[in-house]
Design a protein that fits this description.
The complex is a heterodimer. Chain A folds into 2 domains: 180 residues, 3-Layer(aba) Sandwich (D-Maltodextrin-Binding Protein, domain 2); 107 residues, Periplasmic binding protein-like II (D-Maltodextrin-Binding Protein, domain 2), CATH 3.40.190. Chain A is 34% helix and 21% strand. The chains are: A alpha/beta, B mainly alpha.
Chain lengths: 331, 298
Amino acid sequence: MKKLHILASVLVVLSLLLAACGGGAETPEETQPPVEQPIETQPTEPAVAPAEDKLAEVMARGILIVSSDPAYPPQSELVPNAVRPADTKCATDQKTSAELQGFDIDVSVEIAKRLGLEACFVTPDWTLITAGNWADRWDLSVGSMTITPERMQNLFFSQPYYTTPAAFFVYTDNTSFTQPSDLSGKKIGACTGCTYDAYLSKTLSIPGEEINFVVDDAVFSGYETDSFALDDLALGDGTRLDAVLTAQPTGVQAIQSGKPLKQLGDPVYFEYLAAAIDKAHSKDPTSFVQKLTEVIQQMHADGTLLGLSQKYYGLDLTTAAGEFDVSLLGQ
Amino acid sequence: MAVEALSPPVGQPPDPDYQMGLDLMAFQQKQRRILSIKIAVVWLVLLGFVISFLLFIEFDFAYVVENAWFIIKEGAKWTIIISVVSIFFATILALLGALGRLSKNSIALGISGFYVSLFRGTPLLIQIYVIYLGLPQVGKSLALLGASLGLPFLSTVGDWFILTPIQSGVLALSLNYGAYMTEIFRAGLQSIHHGQNEAAVSLGLSRWQTIRRVILPQAVRIIIPDIGNQFIAMQKDSSLVSIMGVWELTYMANRMARKDIKFMEMFLLAAAAYWVLTIISSWLEGLLEKRLSHAYER
C-alpha cells in the first residue's frame, strides 16, 4: 500500500514538473516558416501526406470545431432553453449551432456549410483563444479577432470577414469633451489585453493601417470585459471613468439597452477581424488557411457577409474587410 | 426517551423530585423554542435588508424568474458533477498524502510535504492554466521524443496529456483541495490517542490493519465536518473552470448577463443557487456526522 501511494505521488509530482518545464521550451521550434499564400490562385494539392494535412483531417472528420466565447453579443451569445438537434455530429462537450447565436456564429455556420461540414462550438475564455497552442482542441476561431502583429506570432489569419470601428464613449450629460483628443490625461476604461488597451498605451499596430494616436497620457483602467467598463462609466460622469474606448457596435448596443452614454466623435481606428488558426496545430494548417480565405472571399463576393452585417448591425461593416489585401500580412 | 428514563422504578414509592424534573425539562424546551423563534426573526429581518437592497438597485425579478430554470438546470448540473467528482479524488489524495506525512519513510515524507507545499502555496487559477495549457505541451514533447527514438506509443501517451476542460478542472481541483485536506486528514489521524495504536500493535495487527480497522474509523468522525467544509468551498471554487468554457453556474450566469446586460440579476441568481447548494450539502454533512457518531452517543 505504501509503495502504491509513493508511486502515485511520484507520478503527480513528475507530471507537474514536466508541465512546468514543457511550457517555454517548445514554442520557438514550433513556429513554422512563413507560409506562401497566393490569394487569387486555386488551392493547390497539399504537398504533404493527407494524414499530416489539417484541411484533410477536418474534411475527413465531418465537423468543423470553432471556438467562440458567447460573452460578446451581438457577435456571439447564448440561446436560452435551446434544443440540441438530435442528428448532430457534435461531441457531447461541444455546443451545436442551435445553442448559440450571433454574427460570428452565423459566419461560422456559413463557412462550415461551404466546406460541407457541420459547425460545432467550444467556448473557452478569450485569453485561451488568443494565446495559441490550442493542442488541437479546436480547428479555428471565428471570434471577431483583430489581426495584430502579436497574435500573428501564434496564429494564422484568414481574409478578414468584417471590420470594427473603435470609438470613445462618454457619459450622456457630459459637455466638456467634444472630440477624442479632449480625453488626454483622463480616466479611460477598456478591456485588459485587447486592442483598446494597446491603443491607449500607443503600442497598437494593425497591419495594413496607419493609426493616429490622439489621446495622450490616459489614466487607464483595465476591465475583464468591455461591458464592465461601460457599467462603470454609466454610474456617472467621472464617477469612476471619464470615457470608455470600445467597439462602436458594443457601445451603441449599450446605449440602446438604456445606458446613459453617448459616442464621442468619429471612430479613432478600424480593426480588421478575421478567422484565426493555430500555428502550433500538429497537422500542417497551410492549405486549411488558404481554403478559409477562399471561402470568406466568396462570402464577400456574393454579398452573404454584407447581408449578415446589415442584419446584426444595420451597417455595412464588411466592404472594407473584403477589400483588405491579406498578402500584406506576409504570413 | 429521556422522560422514560426518569419514570420511577415499578413498585417503589413515587419520587418527590419526579414532577420537578419534568417541570425543569418543559421549561428548558420552552426556552429553546423561544430562542429558535428569536433566531428566525433575526433571519427574517436580515433577509428583509437583502430584499430592500435588491429593490434599491432596480432588480428585475421577472427577468430572474424567467431565466432561472435554464441557468440552474445547465449550470448547477456541472457545478455539482465537478465538485462531487473532485471531492472524491481529493479525499483519496488527502488520505495518501496524510499517510505520507505520518510515515517515517524519507521519500514518502518528502513527496507528501512537497505536494502539500506546492499545491497549497499556488493559486488554483494558475494550476488550472498550467494543467490546461501546459500538459498538452508535455504531451507534444513526448510525441516528438517518441518520433526521434522510434517509439510510436509515446505519441499515444502524449495524447493523454491533452485533457478536456472538465478533466483539467477536476484534476486541478482534486490536487489543490487534496493538498489542503492532507493536513486535515493528518490532524484527524494524529488526534487518535497513541494508546489505540499501541493496543492494536500488541494485539498483533499489522500497520495497515491498524490504520484500516482502528485509527481511520475513529479519525473519520473528526475529519467529516472538515471535509464538508472543504466541499462547500469547492462548490464555489469550481466556478474557476468556467475560464475553459465549462457551462457551470458562474459561466451561465455571466454569459446570460452579458447577453441581456442584466449583471446584478444573474450574479445574484447564481449566488442564491450556490447558497442553496451549500445549505443542502451542510445538511447532508450533518446527517453523515450524526450517523458516524452513533457509537459515541450516551
